[in-house]
Structure formats: structure tokens, C-alpha cells
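Figure 2 data, in text form.
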Amino acid sequence: MGWQDNDDSPWGKKQPPDLRDVIDKLKKSLPINKLPLIGSHGFIPSIIVIALILWLASGIFFVAPDEVGVVKRFGKAVRTVMPGPNYHAPMPIETVMRPKVTRVQRLEIGFRSLGERQKGRVRAVPSESLMLTKAENIINLTFIVQYKIKDAAAYLFNIKDQTETVMAAAEAAMRETVGKNDIDDTLTTGKYQIQQETKENLQAILDSYKAGIHVVAVQLQDVHPPDQVMAAFKDVASAKEDKSKLINEAHGYRNEILPKAKGKAAQITNDAIAYRESKIIQAQGDASRFSQMLAQYKMAQDITKKRLYIEMMEEILPKVDKIIIDKNVGRNILPHLPLDKKTVKTMQ
């Protein structure tokens, strides 16, 4: 089936081959002469049969392991097929869509990554990231959403613009959650709770849409006050830190002083109790001794009186040398000073 040489042809020296020669050569090369032919011109029906076979064979399709096939009949979903070889009626009767149901898709809200060339750099989207907290404080919050397809037919036909729908629902769920929390909790200890509440709210919204989507995770990326009030917020944070520091120091001083004061109070109390007990015992002993002495005094008043006098003098003058003289005998005794036991000081 080559081009024929002809100098007079409009194409120059080359001319298209004759159509009859092409058909004759095609008949010899293809086994179409064995097919049932209709009429004397049987080649055209054979072509139609071959085309019909090829058209019917075009309904064979394969679904990858990470996909699910959704078969449409005149644009309407009629069935879902699992991975492997499958068949549907040829186009345009039926067509197939094969979404990847095992792939975890990722959405960025409040920021956009700038790609591989500028890896690590992002572009802020303030219209998505600026939110109001419970006390109407403005906060700048960025986060990502990870989700998978759990119902391929619902995902493809129940919602339009799936990515934009999930982003809008995620932003609404996050704004609702942040609006129920204080700014301090959002910036510090309440991040995990906010992530979980947002995930639950987002899943509820998508389920109400019958979107066929399973939310895998909601992760906060960056949470901070807006740049316009960053300096004032840092001042407030520093004041709070100073307040906490002073409170902790006061607690430490209290924890140091209170045990000492309690110990000293317990010591004083114990000393007072011991003093009271000793005085009580001493008083009881004195009372008992007095009672016994009274009994002796009643039996021999003069002797007891003298003994009491002498004992009292011994108690009053414990370091003074004493000489006891009977009053009846002492009249004839000349008292004298024991000069040998005194130190005489000479006045200068």
C-alpha cells in the first residue's frame, strides 16, 4: 500500500494508493472472508461485526487494589465494584469512575504550602485563619484536615466540589469550637481538646451531607495572636508569668514558715503541759507533805515548830555558817566574829 509515482499529480511525484487495492490487500491479510457476509458486498458487514465485538470488549475494565469502581448508567450510579477485573456495558451506556478510597487526603486551612521549590515556606490565608474566641479575642489559627473516602458513590454524587466542601465544613467546625473556648486554653493546654471537638463536629457536618467521607484527624499547626496585637499580648503574658512567679514564691515561703511555726507552737504547748503537770505533782506532793507534817505537829507541836523553823532557816540561808545555841544556855556565851574567815579590805 505504498504511494504511486505520478509526476502529474497535485502531490508531486507521490500519489495516494487506489482504495480498491487497499481493500483487496486488507481482505487477503485479514480472515474476514471466513465471516458470514451479507450480499455481494460482504466486507462492510464484516467491519461492522468486528467493530461491534471491539465495542462490546471495551466494557472490560480493571480496578486497582486502592480503588473502588462506581459504574454509571447514562450518568446515574447503579453499582459499586471491588478491585480486580470487571465488566460494564460499553460506552455510552455505562461508564466507570475509580476513586482512590485508601489514600489519605490532606487539606490546609489558614495557610498554603508553596511547593517543593520553596519547601518549608507557607503562604498565610488570613480570611481562613483569623477567628474569635469565647471572650471575643481574635486569634490566628492554622490547621490541617486528613480524610478518606468511606462511601465512593456518596462521595462522587452527593456533594459537589468535594475539596471545597470539606474545607468549608472544616473551617466552620473549627470556628464553632474556638468560639466556645477561652484564648488561654486555645493557646496552651486546650489544643488537644479543640482538635478532638473539631474532628467530631466536622464528621457530624459531613455525615449530615451524606458525603461518604471519614475524617481521620484534625491537627493544629500554629496558634498565636494576630501580628497587630502581638506586642501587647507578650506584655500580658509576661505579667501573668510574673504573677505566677510571685505566687509560687509566696507558696514556697509559706511552706517553709508554716512547718517551723507549727513545730515551735507544738514545742511551747508541750512545755506548758509538762510545766503544768510538774506543778500539779509538786503541789500534790507539798499538800501531802503538809498533811503529814500537820499530823506530826498535832502530836508534838513544840518539837515540830522548832524543826520547821530550822529547816526554813536552812533553806533561806543555804551558804551561811550557822551556830545553833539554846536560848537558855546562850546567855553566858560571848558572841564573836570569825575574823579568820573574813577578808579584810584596807581602804586606800
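Caption note: Residues 1-57 form one domain.
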